[in-house]
Amino acid sequence: MIIRGGYNVYPREVEEVLHEHPAVALAAVVGVPHQALGEEIAAAVVLRPGAQVTAEELRQYVKDRVAAYKYPRAVWLMDRLPMGPSGKILKREIRAPVSPEPTV
Length: 104
Hints:
By secondary structure, this protein is α+β, with helices and mostly antiparallel strands. The strands form 2 sheets. Strands 3-4-5 form a 3-stranded mixed β-sheet. A two-stranded antiparallel sheet has the order 1-2. The longest helix is centred in the first third of the chain and has 10 residues. The radius of gyration is 13 Å and the shape is globular. The chain starts with a strand and ends in a 26-residue tail after the last strand.
C-alpha cells in the first residue's frame, strides 16, 4: 500500500487500469519518496512489442479512470521489469530512471 498525503492507494488497483490499455504489456506501481506527501505514486511500464504510447498519455489514461489522488504522477517506460524466478515482478528493485521525486 502507498500512503499519499494521508490517502491509501493500492498499487494493484492502478496496475489493473494500466493493464487495460492496449499498449501495456507489464506495469508495476510503486511509491516513491515525496517531501510534502510522504509518498508519491509512480508506475514503471513495459509496452507490447510494436506499441507506441507516451508516458503522458498513459498518465492521462489512468487519471481519467481513477480518483484524483490515485493516478501516477510519474510514468516510466522501461524495456523490462525486474522479475523473480517465479515470474513475479520484483517491485523493490524498481528504481526511478532520472529523479526519485516526480514532477507534478
